[in-house]
Q: What sequence folds into this?
């Protein structure tokens, strides 16, 4: 049996720079856009950002570039694509 190699979440997140992501935050909303930066506390900066309400993909608002604090993030989906695209 081959040993399993674990990769750190931060390294995985950094490898997703310039790719589309969906960031789900503690208030239940999600933000979809292109990841342009992250730091050691998993704060993320997203460009061409769109806020969606809950589990729907209906946009609530569109933003340019946003910063989301790592302490408010529940999870991040890498290489996210909207079903309606």
A:
């Amino acid at each position: 049996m081959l040993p399993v190699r674990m990769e750190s979440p931060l390294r995985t997140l950094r490898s997703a720079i310039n790719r589309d992501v969906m960031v789900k935050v503690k208030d239940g909303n999600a933000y979809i856009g292109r990841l342009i930066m992250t730091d050691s506390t998993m704060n993320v900066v997203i460009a061409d950002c769109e806020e969606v309400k809950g589990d729907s993909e209906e946009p609530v608002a569109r933003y340019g570039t946003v910063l989301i604090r790592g302490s408010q993030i529940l999870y991040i989906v890498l290489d996210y694509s909207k079903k309606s695209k």
